[in-house]
Amino acid sequence: MCDPHDQHEHEPPTATDPVPAAAHLAASAYVPPTGLARDSPAKTTALDWIGEHTDRITGLNAEIWDNAELSLREWKSSLAQAAFLEQAGFQVEFGTAGFPTAFTATYSYGTGGPVLGFSGEYDALPGLSQRSGVGHHDPREYVHDPFAPGYGPGHGCGHCALGTAAAAAAAAVARAAERHRLPVTVRFFGSTAEENLIGKTYAVSQGVYDGLDAFLDWHPSTSNATGWRSGTAMTAVTFAFLGVAGHGGHPLGNKSALDAAVMMATLSEFLREESLAHSGRLHWVINNGGDIPNVTPEIAEISYYVREGSPARVQVLLDKVIAVSEAAAKASRTSVRHRVTAACWNQLPSRAFAELMHDNMRQLGPPEFTDEAQRLARDLQESLGLPPKGLHTEIAELAPPNPVFLGGGSTDVADISWNVPTVSMGAALAPIGTKLHTWAVTSCAAAAPGRATVIAAARYLAATAIDLLTQPDRLASIKDEFRLRTEGIEWRTALPDGYEPPMYEPPQWFLDRTGQTWPPDNITWPPRRVVSQEKFSSLGPELAPQE
Fold first, then answer.
1. Residue whose C-alpha is closest to residue 191's, from 93, 91, 104
2. Which residue numbers in the chain have pLDDT < 70?
3. Contacts with 104 (C-beta within 8 Å, 6 or more apart), sequence order
4. What CA–CA distances, in Å, run from 305 to 8, 141, 195, 313, 453?
5. H or E, element range at 305
6. Residue 187 and residue 464: Cα distance in Å, rounded?
7. What are the start-end ranges of the H helices in 411-496?
8. Which of 198, 370, 418, 468 has the fewest CB atoms nearer than 10 Å to its CB?
9. In Å, what is the CA distance from 144 to each residue of 139, 148, 149?
10. What is the pLDDT of residue 23?
């Protein structure tokens, strides 16, 4: 018997969410098609270009790895990637969607051809510094703070390789189009802050990706695979609690904002049994909790990633998290405010596009890992307590999505996928059994594994893009499927009304090099200050002295 209270209060009991439903086409007894990827003189030219420029490609990957710049501050990395494309004949313009380190690089040949998009990224992750090619944890940058030791940033998600391979593929396609007179416009989007899921989601809402016929995406992985599964929609939200500071030795009347953040973290854990479905994810970090124990923290911030199978389901879970914040504020006698820092949809996959990509991957074969690469992989696995299986050396079978969605990661490519047919692919850069967002990936990204994978990924992307140019019917079928999947669904940004993306002020030398001025016209600068106006907590009337 169904309890009526089990129904979501935001939707009628019979409602079907169209977003995850759009991610599935009939796939019973599925057998991947072959013969989709075809050899052509243009494809040979593109692949040869990649082979002839291997040193430049792996050198760019190493340069971006060495910079290890965090989201929204990729000053040197964005310039390096843009310079690579300028050398290949692309016109580069910085400041895409107002982000200083985002750029759009364009190459056109002829008229009337398709517009193909490639995705570039270059941000590192905090705390994942690691020496390149070392099989045990050995941070390259160690923070010698006696009270808060830690590690510097590192490319623990492999974005140095991601953007490099995509740039190489874009350049190879441009070269092939020119030599074989294939009309095309190639657009490369250098995207900032993927790790915060900000750069692309906001840019899509500003129309940056309008006019594309197809979009090609890849990401470093532990396997060589593509498919047409979806991911989770996500909203990133930060809660700021405001209290009153005071001496820790005389705490009566103080209001600890950190107490509020800890209460919220504890309360939100109780959502997991009865309010968090198997398709959801909820994780948090206290990113501002005070500096020294004898000063009661007046401001504390806790950030959440709220993930679910569709934007509507994210909103239901987010409402519960917001309610928890209000309860924590009330219990701690503090005040709370929240701001959404990023929000994206779940990805709309493309079966036809994935089938074409898979056939190219199958024909080209897996990355050519050296003995050095496999030794490093096995050393890392032993260091992490994993079986020493090395790196993945096969192209994974193409399989339909699991009919039961079990959740997972999120990507800011998702919002692009609802506006243009998109394919995503993974190539093995990390050892089998490891995970992204670890120091082990940093070790591999620009070492022997990364050098092989960045070339293989560039080949997969370039070969698939060339097929779109030489087989117009293939592109037409991909676009037909896109129209079918999106029928009756209107994409709109999951970002709130009036959203202003977070940004850091660039150094003047970067503004001079890229021809930008500060601030861009889509943000308020400086940002509004967050200042507590709370009063000390009342303890009630004073007690009369005892006689």
1. 104
2. 1-16, 18, 21-28
3. 92, 93, 96, 187, 188, 189, 190, 208
4. 21, 27, 12, 13, 30
5. strand 299-308
6. 15
7. 413-417, 439-445, 448-470, 472-486
8. 370
9. 12, 8, 5
10. 52
